[in-house]
Write a structure and sequence with these properties.
The complex is a heterodimer of chains A (112) and B (114). Chain A has strands at residues 3-5, 10-14, 19-21, 24-26, 32-38, 44-50, 56-58, 64-68, 73-78, 87-94, 100-102, 106-111. The model of chain A has no long low-confidence stretch (mean pLDDT 92). Chain A is an all-beta fold and 112 residues long. In chain A, the strands form three sheets. In chain A, strands 2, 5, 6, 10, 11 and 12 form a six-stranded mixed β-sheet that branches. A four-stranded antiparallel β-sheet of chain A has the order 3-9-8-7, with no helix packed on it. A two-stranded antiparallel sheet of chain A has the order 1-4. In chain A, strand 8 and strand 9 (73-78) form a beta hairpin. In chain A, 35% of the residues are buried. Chain B is an all-beta fold and 114 residues long. Chain B contains no helices and eleven strands. In chain B, strands 2, 4, 5, 6, 9, 10 and 11 form a seven-stranded mixed β-sheet that branches. Chain B has a four-stranded antiparallel β-sheet with strand order 1-3-8-7, with no helix packed on it. In chain B, a hairpin with a 2-residue loop joins strand 7 and strand 8. Chain A binds chain B through residues 32, 34, 36, 41-46, 49, 51, 90, 94, 96-97, 99-100, 102-105, and chain B through 34, 42-44, 46, 49, 90, 92, 97, 99-108, 110.
Chain lengths: 112, 114
């Protein structure tokens, strides 16, 4: 069965600094990969997803992620963070036509 | 456009009391529906999902149950709440049969069991 690991539970970063949130998955077959963001006391919304094709995926709010099949990773990056990026970020994986499995989440705190 | 509603937004209930949380989706037909629970500081735990009216799959054995009486209505219930049922409950929907389906989440219900 597939699973998702987010190695960092909390990531503090100064405003305008770059950030990388790490995600690794385990699966013996091809998967779809997602990043969701959850602002305080709200539901989740999709940042970006990888289905196939280019391994570099661009999402909303200036985020991007790169799929690395050999390392089974899908790390999320942003070159310059803003205060408004403070939120919980969830990596998720699914097999074709199967339910989505979410990682435990990474709490990003942007420091002014 | 599609929208998803959850209510109530917050709920404080005593241990042993019943529970009913409701989720409705507008602007789409025959969606897949999901109930997740998010405990404080933890990730999402899939509780139930449904691919159609009356079709419910349970992921985790517990004292909660789910029902789908109408195509776009999903209800989470309990006959007797436990302290461990406290958490943030999220409903979500997705397009059935679409590869790499995005899940669209509602605003959530925060439940505190005392």
């Amino acid at each position: 069965a597939q699973s998702v690991t987010q190695l960092d539970s909390q990531v503090p970063v100064f405003e305008e600094a770059p950030v990388e949130l790490r995600c690794n998955y385990s699966s013996s077959v091809s998967v779809y990969l997602f990043w969701y963001v959850q602002y305080p006391n709200q539901g989740l919304q999709l940042l970006l997803k990888y289905l196939s094709g280019s391994t570099l995926v661009k999402g909303i709010n200036g985020f991007e992620a790169e799929f690395n099949k050999s390392q089974t990773s899908f790390h999320l990056r942003k070159p310059s963070v803003h205060i408004s990026d403070t939120a919980e970020y969830f990596c998720a994986v699914s097999l074709i036509y199967d339910k989505v499995i979410f990682g435990p989440g990474t709490s990003l705190s942007v420091i002014p | 456009s599609q929208t998803i509603h959850q209510w109530p937004a917050t709920l404080v209930q005593p241990v042993g009391s019943p529970l009913s949380l409701e989720c409705t989706v507008e602007g789409t037909s025959n969606p897949n529906l999901y109930w997740y629970r998010q405990a404080a500081g933890r990730g999402l735990q899939l509780l139930f999902y449904s691919v159609g009216i009356g079709q419910i799959s349970s992921e985790v054995p517990q004292n909660l149950s789910a029902s789908r009486p109408q195509d776009r209505q999903f209800i989470l219930s309990s006959k007797k709440l436990l302290l461990s049922d406290s958490g943030f409950y999220l409903c979500a929907w997705s397009v059935p049969g679409a590869s790499g389906e995005t899940q669209y989440f509602g605003p959530g219900t925060r439940l505190l069991v005392l």
